[in-house]
Amino acid sequence: MRFPRSVTLIEKLSERFAVTDLCSVFEINRSRYYDYLKQRDRIDPDRERLKAEAIRLHAQSRGSMGARNLSAALKAQGESVGRFLAGRLMAETDLHSCQRRPRPYRHSVVQSRFAENLLERQFEVSAPNQVWCGDITYIWAGTHWVYLAVSYTHL
Question: Is the per-residue pLDDT at 22 higher than 70?
Fold first, then answer.
C-alpha cells in the first residue's frame, strides 16, 4: 500500500487503536508518520509558484501540453523541472493533456462532380481573365475559426 494512503488509514483508525500499533501493522516508522503529518500541512511557496506557472502554460497551449513539453517550457524559463516533477505538478493541479485528432485527408479517387479540371496544371495563359484561381483556409482566432478566401487571375 502506498504511503499517503497508509497515513490516511492510520489517521482514521487512530481513534480506536494506538498509533504505535498501526504503524507497525503498516510497516511505517512512527517518526516518519509524524514527519509526514507536519510536512503535509506545510505550504511550499516555490511549489505553489511552479503549480501556478504550470496552469498558465497549460492554458496557453489550449490544454495540449503534456509533462515533457511542460518540463521543456519551464526549463526555458530557467526552472529546474524534470519530466516526472512536471507530471506530478500536472497531477496535483488536475491538468491533463488533450490532443486533437488530426482531420483525415480525403484523397480524391474519382473525378470531381462539381468542376472539371480544365487546366490539367497548365497555368500559362495568353490574356487576362481567362483563368481564375482560388483557395480557402481556416484560421483559429482564439475562440473560434475564421475563414479566409482568396481568388486571383493568372496573367
Answer: yes
